[in-house]
Amino acid sequence: MSRFLVAVAALLLPTLALADVDARFAKLRDDSEPLGGLGAFLEKYIGACEGALVDPQCKAQAEAFRKKYQGKQLYMIVVEDDASMLSPGPYSPVTGEYTINITPFFPGGRYAMTHGAPKKSDGNGNPVLPYLTVTGTLPDGWNGQIFSRMFSMRGVRAQVVFTPQGVWSLPKKGGGKNFGVTARIDGLIVTEGRTGTQLGLWLNGKDANASR
Questions:
Q1: Are 179 and 111 in contact (CB under 8 A)?
Q2: pLDDT tens figures, 69-97
Q3: Helices (H) and strands (E) in the chain, counts
Q4: How far is the C-alpha of 202 from the C-alpha of 99, rounded, in Å?
Q5: Does an H or E element contain 18, and which?
Q6: Is the torsion defined by CA of 24, 70, 112, 133 positive or negative?
Q7: Burial of 161 (0-12, 13-18, 19+ CB in 10 A)
Q8: What is the DSSP-derived secondary structure letter of residue 126?
Q9: C-alpha–C-alpha distance, residues 138 and 148, integer Å
């Protein structure tokens, strides 16, 4: 295979891997702006405008950046190694039904994006947020051990469509403040990383799998 064809194949693979998703989520994804990197986006959106060496235009630039993305839907992929916000919930060996818990806290560099604004922190200074949950039924041949192992072995990923809404802050342990971006999660799909099998879908504030 020529170098050109190899390069084209490498570009197509991510698209092919994302093709087999629920049509409702696919429409959200396709209507959204792909996010190159969450950390860089959060830095510009929040605007770190403290210290002697900060650009005098920092605050104005941050305000302009926030205005640019006001009401705009963005799309990002949380790869397996970064999907620590996903965890296994209850599983029924009788019915094969399971729950996946999603802590809607998506870190990027010094900051994080959250679904809604956290109101308090835990004893370690981390924001406290209620779970989002999705449900499903395990395929034939699967069991609870396989289900749990997907999470412990970093075998799941998430795709997220969200709309940024503002900046939140909470007191930091030891002094100062923690900052983040509050957003509305418009859609989130959980898939097995290796096969792309859909494990759960959360749309417009509800477990979309449960509505089927």
A1: yes
A2: 999 999 999 999 999 999 999 999 999 99
A3: 5, 11
A4: 12
A5: helix 3-19
A6: negative
A7: buried
A8: P
A9: 11
